[in-house]
Amino acid sequence: MALRARALYDFRSENPGEISLREHEVLSLCSEQDIEGWLEGVNSRGDRGLFPASYVQVIRAPAAEPPPPARYANVPVGGFEPLPPPAAFKPAAQQPPPEPFPPPPAGYPFPPYGGSYQPSQGSDDDWDDDWDDSSTVADEPGALGSSYPDYEAAGGGASGRYRLSTRSEPSLGPRGAGHPPGHPHPPGGGGGGAAKSSATVSRNLNRFSTFVKSGGEAFVLGEASGFVKDGDKLCVVLGPRGPEWQENPYPFQCSIEDPTKQTKFKGMKSYIAYKLVPSHTGQQVHRRYKHFDWLYGRLAEKFPVISVPHLPEKQATGRFEEDFISKRRKGLAWWMDHMCSHPVLAQCDAFQHFLTCPSTDEKAWKQGKRKAEKDEMVGANFFLTISVPTGPGASLDLQDVESQVDGFKAFTKKMDESALQLNHTANEFARKQVTGFKKEYQKVGHSFKCLSQAFELDQQAFSAGLNQAIAFTAEAYDAIGDLFADQPRQDLDPVMDLLALYQGHLANFPDIIHVQKGALTKVKESKRHVEEGKMELQKAEGIQERCNIISFATLAEINHFHKIRVRDFKSQMQHFLQQQILFFQKVTQKLEEALHKYDSV
């Protein structure tokens, strides 16, 4: 039986991908499953696209032709609950005109007319065929979704999976039952309480802001819904410094060693592979830089309130030079240390797949890669995975949170400025040591050598010891020049590597803070509506509760940043000073050896 629907109201399309409806018009539906309050179908004029589900009534009648194929069949709905069919409405003639309809959900991928939606593909300067083939996740065993039984609607489902939703409960207001906030409904469907339900928290006008793109806005407004597995839960606990991520019960480290040049396609393509040895498996795997780059992209997309460390920068030329390979390996080692030290990132499925999948098992790699790319717990649904403290004393004071976040914002700005200054100073000092200091000390050594050669013209035996001592002093200063040239690699370069890593973290936090600030703004707006009698208290409390989840996560990430910052800079400053002491001990030793040569003169 073909799926059809009858238009209850006129609707005029205003955005690409929408189609217009005329009252009483019969449409063919591509699917009865709505996408966040929108259906796809074909109107009587043959136009195909989206229209509001609440403006039509589904009818079921036999039809000779099958429904047209849905162009949006592959668009994930993110586990959203199917909305109940619209309630029966009065004849349209008795209804006032429908209120204006907002555009489809922010970020909804509209295809061009006559085309089909294609998911975006990441790009890399070294992308090749060992990453892609024609199979899909559903075709492969163990892929996301294929290993879980269907969740039964009545009283339970798959073990370890829980249905979570932030959608508002059906109300008796004029927006009707079962529709998410922000979606208009034909008037006349409500009863009492119209005054308090007339106001909603507005959406951001800038649909490209981080708060919107991260899914933070949709979550705070109560539009997230999905299944959360036990393994997806991220717990925030109250520690001595406030909210903290729950520690990884099985901490581990991972070394990055032996970068080697390898080839493929009979030597036509070359690349550098790094050996990774995770401590919790002891099994080595080999990864290329593009594998690191893919992982970073997935994690940055999945965790909008976590600072994913930046990778060392790419380089178009000189990728196989020894100095570049060594510098990149050190940068990747710092990156790996921060990944393993983060309680959330270290346990992420994509990161564990990256660390443990055998290098030679291409099928297993592709399955895990596609599973990560099909992860449903992203965007607004990501925030459903966060579990925060509850009970007495666990609530957050919004003013206190805002004050802490503002203080951290000022801290990161000052730290960024200081890091840039120190990096510039260290780089300039290292340059002087490698070139200027070496040249000056060797110039002094050359001058002493010239003096020794002049003294050798005197053939007196009693002056031979002096000549040899001065010649040795010349050699000592020449060696000290070499020590200066080699020293930056021992002390200043590691400092600059650490600064580069933290400059990446500092670049992440403005977006993280923006998400939290956006949530606070929605809470303030909802409180104002309650005070004006335009919003129910229960709805405003739901917005504040969801804002608290984002605030807990943000404060937990800030505390983790400070904790790891103290650890790293303590260790690095100790290393720097130890290396400086060793350096000057070597210089002193050279000078003392030269001094002793004069004792026998």
Automatic annotation (TrEMBL):
Location of this chain's protein in the cell: Cytoplasmic vesicle membrane
Domain PX residues, every copy: 252-362
GO molecular function: phosphatidylinositol binding
Acidic residues bias spans: 123-133
Keywords: Cell cycle, Cell division, Cytoplasmic vesicle, Endocytosis, Membrane, Mitosis, Protein transport, SH3 domain, Transport
Cross-referenced Pfam families: BAR_3_WASP_bdg (PF10456), PX (PF00787), SH3_9 (PF14604)
Keyword Protein transport appears in the UniProt entry: yes
Residue ranges occupied by any SH3 domain in the UniProt entry: 1-61
Comp. bias (Pro residues): 85-112
Signal peptide range: none
UniProt binding sites for a 1,2-diacyl-sn-glycero-3-phospho-(1D-myo-inositol-4,5-bisphosphate): R288, K290, R328
GO annotation, biological process: cleavage furrow formation; endocytosis; endosomal transport; mitotic cell cycle; plasma membrane tubulation; protein transport
TM region positions: none
Membrane topology: Peripheral membrane protein
One GO location term (cellular component): cytoplasmic vesicle membrane
Residue ranges of the region described as Disordered: 85-199
Family: Belongs to the sorting nexin family.
Listed PANTHER family: SORTING NEXIN, SORTING NEXIN-18
Name of the molecule in the record: SNX18 protein
Record organism: Cettia cetti
